[in-house]
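tool=predict chain=A
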Amino acid sequence: MMRFFKQKEKLIILIAIFPIFGLSLLKISSDMIFIGDQAWFYLSARDLLLGDSFPLVGITSSHTWLHQGPLWTYLLAIALWIGRFNPVSGAYLSIGINILTIFFFYILGKRMFSKRVALIGTVLYAFSPYLLHLSRMPYHTTPIPLLTLFYFYLLTQWANGKRAYFKWIFFLLALLYNFELATIVLAGPVLVIAIYGFVKKKEFITRLIKRDIYVTILLGVVPLIPIIIYDIGHGFKQTLGYVAWLIYTAVKAVFGLFSISHSSGSIADTGFFLLQRLSWLIFLPNLIIGVILLLLSIGGVLVAIRQRRHDNEESITYIILLLWLLFTIGIFVMNKVPSDAYLPSMFVAIFLGIGVAIEQLLNKKNKVIIFLIGILLLLNTITLLKHNYSMVSEKNIVLSERIQAVDAILAHSQRKSVNIQGKGDGSQFESFTMPYEYLLWYKGHPASVDAQTNVEIEEINSKIIVTLKK
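tool=predict ok
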């Protein structure tokens, strides 16, 4: 694909990708984040490879009667098979997906907007502290930014009259649903565009034929086949139950009768959480500057729409980008559930929006804006390295620390089988002990509930406390 780029474009893409590749791999074997929910997928992938089970669904969501899809388990199983079950194999998979996202960000950004928007968005995305942090954390949300990028491209092409793209939109929606249930919010822009096309009798709606609808349904069902098979024996909670729940909660939310989530907080708390995370996404050292750049992205898209209001085809792309931003950010705040898992569906949209805004500023003060972008990237990188790939306000327990805890367990138990038990904050979740269970198995001494030696694990202030009980 590189042959399609001019020489300067090749250079810029290489400048963006190769340093990021190096930064992503730096100390990855020791400092990879490895939390309980990740380990759930590792154990599921292990069981798949060993033939012990074939997972049809993923980990439970915040509503425990709902599960994420199984596709991340399948991808992770491939990585673990290649890496001989080394836990770092998952990080290589995650980093590879992030590099692909950077690469296609430029390709599709240039097609949808302009070379400038693509270059600005690509470079800022590539050096985003939060995204570098997440790329080193193999998790089921990892593929979402890449899939949303393709999804947005297909949506703009369909809305501009290319009927053949319609069926693939629903295929990507089904893929996204597999990796995170909350990505169903991305169906919002499709619904708005479809209603607009129907009312205005646009060709991208009126020219759809039965064959298009049948193929669309088929492609939308294919990624959901494992989930549907699971649902047959579980009351169709993952499909029909989920749709019914969405309708119910949407109606309740519209009339203000209740909060969407049973564990919700306030809109103010959720809004602050969002702004903090998006500041990490754009400019790690300072929340205010990060928020300003976020608002700039939305404002820049609004200005671009106004400037192109007489060019129907070009303005549609910007309108869809605005819908993408409004739906993902708006529903996140309304949902009142401050969770990092819900954020990846908006990452690409934010950087495209910033690219659009900065492109308009470049027409006036090119050298100043380019200089400021360079300073931003430099400060982001320095701050990230200074905090060892953790965000400023957080310290994560990394893989090497968990391995040390497992080595201590093996030493104290004289390498006999142990029964792992959790204690303290977080231990109420089933996945709390799973990182230690996977690492014990990887080292050849799997844990067992029937073992006579019990090990109690507690995590306090990012420190692991291991207590051996016989």
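DSSP finds 21 helices and three strands in the chain. Confidence is low (pLDDT under 50) at residues 1-5, 257-263.
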